Amino acid sequence: MADKNKSSVVWHQPDGEPLSCLEKIKVLNENLEEIRELSQDALEDAVLMGGDEDQLREVLKTIVDDLINPYASKKH
Q1: Could you tell me if 33 and 7 are in contact, meaning their C-beta atoms sit under 8 angstroms apart?
Q2: Does the pLDDT at position 4 exceed 80?
Q3: Which of 24, 33, 35, 52 gives a 20 to 30 Å CA spacing to 61?
């Protein structure tokens, strides 16, 4: 299961070019892993407490869809 959780994301800049800074890539991958772990925990808790798995997945999708980019007006 550990291999499935490893990020294989190629991070890109807004212009489509891949990020080249290894430290930035490391931070993004660590953030993604934290999100994945918290989401997995939330799913397991919901199912163990009798909640609906599909509903939790929809709620998680809504959370992502509702994220606000505070830097949107500062795009290059």
Answers
A1: yes
A2: no
A3: 24
Our CA angle for 11, 19, 75, nearest 5°, is 90
Which residue bears the tokens 């994220």? 67
- Residue 2 pLDDT: 45
Residue recorded with tokens 């994301």: 9
> What is the SS3 assignment for the chain?
CHHHHCCCCCCECCCCCECCCHHHHHHHHHHHHHHHHHHHHHHHHHHHCCCCHHHHHHHHHHHHHCCCCCCHHHCC
Which of 25, 20, 24, 21 is CA-nearest to residue 7? 25
pTM to 2 decimal places: 0.78
